[in-house]
Design a protein that fits this description.
The chain contains eleven helices and six strands. With 255 residues, the chain is an alpha+beta fold. The chain has two domains: 112 residues, Serine Threonine Protein Phosphatase 5, Tetratricopeptide repeat (Alpha Horseshoe); 127 residues, no CATH class. Strands 2-1-3-4-5-6 form a six-stranded mixed beta sheet, with helices on one face. The longest helix has 18 residues. It is globular. The two termini are 20 Å apart.
Length: 255
């Protein structure tokens, strides 16, 4: 692995002692490559206490590789360091959902319903002609909301025809199935992209910012949308940039 060679050369060739940030990057790279045992071994042997970057990388790897045991361990450590972060509960619930562990998912839903875990509302925004336009899930406060919803409904029909299937099982809201579908359908980044399609010139790249991590369903939908409308869509979420083009994302579906 080329990255590992560079990491080791820091000390062996250049006399540079890796800092915690370097270890976090290496653990992230090993996790991305599916080398979970090597990643966890590095966590256990590095000369630092693992921070949120390290445990976040392992939690992301657990989701990608459907490793429930690793996900639970990483989530527990993250919740010790950042107990107020609802995103950790959501990501762990997604891992349990993928593994069919419905009892654990129900526990997460109960925590959120009882108010023990406060979920920060997702918010996305875009700047068009020097004005910032902000959307939240199901938002209808924008002056052009009727146009935005009509545009996304039009897109939604095209998404279905292209093979997109909403991931309703990933939604943790304790509401009826129909309401879950509605909430999932109108997530903030989807509304923001729909607005961009009616407010910017044809073919122009769409640049969106989001205050939380992009959800799996929205990530999948945006891959379909960029191909359907022949536009590049760049989303900056709380973790990284996602560059959607021709039906794929620059993150390689790992984030």
């Amino acid at each position: 692995m080329e990255a590992k060679k560079y990491f080791e050369s820091m000390t062996e060739l250049f006399g540079v002692v890796p800092r915690q940030e370097h270890y976090a990057c290496m653990i992230d790279l090993l996790s991305r490559a599916g080398k979970i045992n090597e990643a966890t071994e590095l966590v256990n042997t590095m000369p630092f206490q693992a921070n949120t970057s390290v445990w976040g990388a392992l939690l992301g790897a657990a989701r990608i590789h459907k490793n429930v045991e690793l996900g639970q361990c990483a989530a527990e450590m993250l919740l010790v360091l950042e107990p107020e972060k609802s995103g950790t509960h959501v990501l762990l619930a997604n891992i349990c959902t993928s593994a069919g562990m419905w009892g654990n998912v129900a526990k997460m839903r109960k925590l959120m319903k009882d108010g023990q875990v406060k979920k920060e509302p997702g918010m996305s925004w875009i700047e068009v002609r020097d004005q910032v336009h902000t959307f939240i899930v199901g938002d209808r406060s924008h002056s052009r909301s009727d146009e935005v919803y009509a545009k996304f409904d039009e897109l939604f029909n095209l998404l279905y025809k292209a093979g997109y299937v909403p991931m309703v099982e990933m939604d943790l809201h304790d509401v009826e199935q129909g309401e879950k579908q509605r909430l999932l359908r109108y997530h903030s980044e989807k509304l923001t992209v729909a607005f961009a399609l009616i407010a910017t010139r044809p073919g122009a790249p769409i640049r969106v910012k989001k205050n939380l991590r992009v959800r799996v369903d929205c990530h999948t939908a945006l891959k379909f949308i960029c191909k359907i409308v022949s536009r590049e869509i760049i989303v900056r979420d709380v973790n990284r940039f996602h560059h959607f083009k021709d039906g794929s994302c620059s993150c390689g579906d790992y984030w």
